[in-house]
Specification:
Layout (H helix, E strand, L loop, with lengths): L3 E4 L4 H9 L4 H9 L24 H13 L4 E4 L4 H16 L7 E4 L12 H7 L6 E5 L6 H9 L3 E5 L5 E3 L2 E3 L5 E3 L15 H18 L3 E2 L20 E2 L7 H10 L6 H15 L5 H10 L8 H18 L3 H8 L3 H37 L12 E4 L8 H12 L3 E6 L5 E6 L6 H11 L4 E6 L3 E6 L4 H22 L8 E4 L10 H8 L12 E13 L3 E8 L2 E7 L9 E13 L2 E11 L1
Length: 602
């Protein structure tokens, strides 16, 4: 679907105010167009982070963890199988060690996507029991784990839930588990200013509060200068207050998980990410993060949000999709650089396998879409929501394929596969204006026999259908697709179903330089704070296919010849038109050239 190319509005007063504060003119224009009104919003100092005390349940969580550490209790982290969950687990393990948890008391378990499903289920509680935990601490999951929390407490375990997902809905009302403490900015009654923390952000905030609680108990002295070593603190007890540990050493992991989970980069999240990127560029990062940069062929000295979201994050995610997320967690928690590099290379190999599987699934999905579009009743227009199913699809990759289809046709999309456990599992991706988790809730009310379980966010969600065998799967998926399409017809109008591409307008000719590209790359861009996308009228001088799948262009812009490439596009383009593009550096034989990365043309 060819998008409608739009230009962002730039409030002149905001742009002028930012320039007066010393922001370069191009950046001032870009920031103003993204809602920034003052230079203070761009200050990434840690002192400006929203205090952790604003999170509901944080005082109880900090006390629970402080008691566990001081009593030498065994703590088991219950992780999730995506990058956010892996980084959150690593932050918790490293942070609790820094704050004094005794050697041998910290453990973790992580569900297998194909075997256990998502969250703290009773089966995961049973998986943790051989570790003899006294306290279960969930990261990036748990808010909807009503049965799992109840099962753990029935066995005498304490449970701390740290999460950022939406609660379960029972009889039309949000319900949270009866855990000993819950920290989640999206739980009912929480007034924390940023609802956009990733799971790793919530885990980091919990450690900040725990350090404060231990400081109040006289364990740490905030005034004493910490030593150079960031090794784990000795066991608590005796010796008087010690210098409090530096938790900012964990911010590379926080930045990686935050960007990879595609949460909104509000000012608070941008500060967390900016601080983490700063540490990476300075070479102060976990050995596993450094190893992932190496395995991905990226330069950590120029680390940016794109590296985290499209190079490091997918390699961690691949472990949870095709293998075992313990690989990712061990990579991020080991202090041995050689071991970290070995694990990073394993993750890179798994990610290459994931790409191959995805390519086959996308090809099959394209064939099914082509068949669908032949339906005369559609008159060439895709339905308001899409639902695809193939038993051969890999359950770990359905979410990626759903995202690709959603991007192509600008429709809420679910892709289903037959799981290794015989259940029909789907993952969905959405478009603005269609809250996917709420849509699933409405489908479950209208068709109570269709959904076994569901959960997620506005833009991404997952569900398991009630089909018990391959024979009934097709019918169940068709019924789900019909119900989802009905919700989409009610919620989405023609404007919402029209794909738009917001650009930042023309790029001044003098800004087409390597220095400007490096300046743009140094900023924090991401979800709801999108990277710059420019739009110019160009004349196409030449075009050719390279690498069998990409269109290489030579264009004239503002009287100057420019190089451009359109990845994944092979159809010829007109000799003149509006080009929407990003800037990138093409480095070859020591030379840097600015190149346009084409997103669309009209």
């Amino acid at each position: 679907m060819t998008p409608q190319i739009l230009t962002r509005d730039v409030p002149p007063r905001a742009s002028w105010a930012l320039e007066q504060a010393g922001i370069p003119p191009l950046l001032a224009r870009l920031f103003a167009a993204r809602g920034v009104r003052s230079a203070e919003e761009l200050d990434d100092g840690l002192a400006l982070l929203i205090p952790p005390e604003g999170l509901k349940g944080m005082a109880e969580a900090a006390a629970l963890l402080a008691d566990a550490i001081q009593q030498g209790s065994r703590i088991c982290i219950v992780a999730d199988y995506d990058c956010d969950g892996a980084t959150a687990c690593s932050v918790a393990l490293r942070g609790l060690g820094l704050l004094g948890a005794r050697p041998g008391t910290l453990h973790y378990v992580v569900p297998d996507r194909a075997v256990h499903g998502y969250g703290l289920t009773p089966a995961i509680v049973e998986l943790a029991l051989p570790l003899k935990p006294d306290l279960l601490m969930t990261v990036d999951n748990g808010i909807a784990s009503l049965a799992g929390v109840a099962h753990a407490q029935a066995l005498g375990l304490k449970v701390l839930v740290t999460d950022h997902h939406l609660p379960a809905v029972v009889d039309g009302a949000e319900v949270v588990p009866a855990a000993d403490a819950i920290v989640n900015p999206n739980q009912p009654g929480c007034t924390f200013e940023s609802k956009n923390l990733a799971g790793v952000g919530v885990a980091f905030y919990t450690l900040l509060a725990l350090r404060g609680e231990l400081r109040r108990r006289g364990v740490f002295d905030a005034e004493a200068a910490p030593g150079r070593s960031q090794a784990a603190s000795p066991p608590l007890g005796g010796g008087g207050p010690r210098p409090q540990p530096r938790l900012d050493t964990l911010l590379d992991l926080v930045a990686l998980g935050t960007v990879a989970d595609v949460v909104r980069l509000d000012p608070n999240n941008r500060r967390l990410v900016a601080q983490g990127l700063r540490r990476m560029r300075a070479g102060r990062m976990q050995p596993g993060v450094a190893a992932l940069f190496s395995a991905a062929g990226r330069d950590a000295a120029r680390a940016n949000s794109f590296d985290l979201g499209f190079a490091l994050g997918p390699r961690i995610n691949a472990a949870g999709r095709l293998s075992d997320m313990t690989l990712g967690i061990e990579c991020l928690t080991t202090d041995d650089p050689a071991r970290a590099l070995e694990l990073a290379r394993q993750l890179d190999a798994i990610n290459r396998e994931r790409r191959e599987i995805e390519a086959g699934m996308r090809e099959l999905a394209e064939l099914k879409l082509d068949e669908l579009m032949q339906d005369p009743a559609l008159q060439g227009e895709a339905p308001p929501a899409l639902c695809l199913y193939e038993p051969e699809f890999h359950e770990g990759v359905v979410g990626i394929v759903a995202g690709r289809v959603k991007d192509r046709l600008h429709r809420p999309t679910f892709v289903f596969a037959l799981g290794a456990d015989g259940q029909v599992k789907g993952s969905g991706r959405s478009i603005p204006g269609f809250h996917l988790r709420d849509a699933l809730d409405l489908v479950s009310k209208r068709e109570p026999s269709l959904l076994k379980k569901f959960g997620g966010h506005a833009m991404a969600a997952g569900c398991t259908l009630t089909a018990e065998d391959p024979e009934s799967a097709e019918a169940c998926v068709r019924a789900f697709g019909a119900a989802l399409q009905q919700v989409a017809r009610e919620w989405l109008d023609a404007a919402a179903l029209t794909r738009t591409l917001k650009t930042d307008g023309p790029l001044p000719a003098e800004a087409f330089t390597p220095d400007i590209v490096l300046q743009l790359e140094a900023q924090v861009w991401g979800q709801a704070f999108e990277a710059p996308l420019f739009c110019d009228e160009v004349q196409v001088v030449s075009q050719r296919i390279v690498g069998e799948r990409h269109l290489k262009l030579r264009v004239k812009q503002a009287g100057q010849l420019r190089d451009a490439i359109w990845f994944g596009h092979v159809d010829p383009v007109p000799e003149q038109g509006r080009l929407a593009y990003r800037l990138a550096l093409d480095e070859y034989q020591g030379q840097q050239r600015v190149q346009m990365i084409v997103e669309a043309m009209s």
